[in-house]
Amino acid sequence: MALFARLRLQFPHLRQHINFSTSPPSSKSKTRTALSLLKSETNPEKILEICRSASLTPHAHIGRITFSVAIDKLAKSNNFSYIDDFLTELRTSRPDLRTVRFAAHSIILYGQAGMLDHAIRLFKEYHEKNQNDAVLTSGSVKLLNALLFSCILSKKHDEVKRVFVDFSKRYKIEPNLETFNTVIQSFCESGSSSSSYSVLNEMDMKGVKPNETTFGHLFAGFYSEEKYEDVGTVSKMIEYYGINAGIGVYNIRIHSLCKLKRAKEAKVLLEGCLSKGIKPNGVTYSHLILGFCMEGDLEEAKRLFKSMENRGCQPAYSCYATLVYFLGKVGDFESAYWVCKESMGKKMVPNISTMKILVQGLASSGELDKAKELIGEVKERFSKNIELWNEVEAGLRLKHVKGKLIGTERAPFTSCWKSSTSFSLFSLCSIPNISELITLKALKSIQELL
């Protein structure tokens, strides 16, 4: 409760977002508050204090996200000792975290921070201290899988093979499907996708059948290396093993092709999905829309956006944000405006840089009212950025006035302006729509213009 007491005193403006009732907050409520605070906190001591006060646990998804954010911020500021002390403290001081599950999660967090040596140390310590513990038998493969994934997170792909071979033998751990998939993932992400064939052979010998995740990694790897013959081989293997590839596998293939600027081929895969009765989702369309936008075919991107809505597929945030950004970049502000309006109607607002492109474009093309309307909606929903948006709005008004001052509609005033280098406040205020802009900054800009 100490955390929330301090929040009431130090951050009174958060009352509208956080429930400061006298009843104890739920675990999820505390975790959400901690996550919100962590996003803007940089002091390592305060980061740990926020985490401790929230009693974080990795059992819930939001708890894992919060752990990840905290560790990431500490790692980026090179506060590695804080990470080690914090994770060690949790494992030793909290009975609910003295488990194989949290040990595995700690190993992954060490990998995220680039502290693979600590991850390996924890793996070894846990096995040496628990060699005769019944819990270890079911937990050792979980720790091995966590360590392999930790190698991937820390970009130490060369360590994956060593850990897989040496630690499996030394600690008598029988690899499972997740183990093999993680090794294949490492090969495919490090440009050695062909090495995955040997892993598939070992899986066959051990009677471990590959699944969609296995083939998803293989497709991503071979596409990335542009080994299209191997892509065909993987497609045949899916049929051989009798696996019905779902939309997840198709999304990986579509995404891979779009990254290679082969969006038309990716669209053929979409049509293949539809012919097989496989329903595409928002991720499918997000990849395709971005792919066509990157290739400059915005008309096809707009057609895909329309078709996904006609098929009852709800556009994801990325679909809206991508379209608004690229439409704004090519000057199609009217289309971008309507896409943005639809997005905001569903409480999905593009990021501030994309929104600035749109509102500035609308204002420059004579649609100042529409630009101000969008800014008003954004300010209403995101009060923390209100000052920034006030500046953007003021800039739009000033540009609008500048455009009118140098336009033909103001020609009658030009001669009298040129006759003097200084202007009275009265003469400026007599010009329509300019009195609202009488600030020192505006006056200086107008004088520089003339």
UniProtKB/TrEMBL annotation:
<protein>
    <recommendedName>
        <fullName>Pentatricopeptide repeat-containing protein</fullName>
    </recommendedName>
</protein>
<feature type="repeat" description="PPR">
    <location>
        <begin position="281"/>
        <end position="315"/>
    </location>
</feature>
<dbReference type="Pfam" id="PF12854">
    <property type="entry name" value="PPR_1"/>
</dbReference>
<dbReference type="InterPro" id="IPR002885">
    <property type="entry name" value="PPR_rpt"/>
</dbReference>
<dbReference type="Pfam" id="PF01535">
    <property type="entry name" value="PPR"/>
</dbReference>
<dbReference type="InterPro" id="IPR050667">
    <property type="entry name" value="PPR-containing_protein"/>
</dbReference>
<dbReference type="Pfam" id="PF13041">
    <property type="entry name" value="PPR_2"/>
</dbReference>
<feature type="repeat" description="PPR">
    <location>
        <begin position="176"/>
        <end position="210"/>
    </location>
</feature>
<dbReference type="InterPro" id="IPR011990">
    <property type="entry name" value="TPR-like_helical_dom_sf"/>
</dbReference>
<keyword id="KW-0677">Repeat</keyword>
<comment type="similarity">
    <text>Belongs to the PPR family. P subfamily.</text>
</comment>
<keyword id="KW-0809">Transit peptide</keyword>
<feature type="repeat" description="PPR">
    <location>
        <begin position="246"/>
        <end position="280"/>
    </location>
</feature>
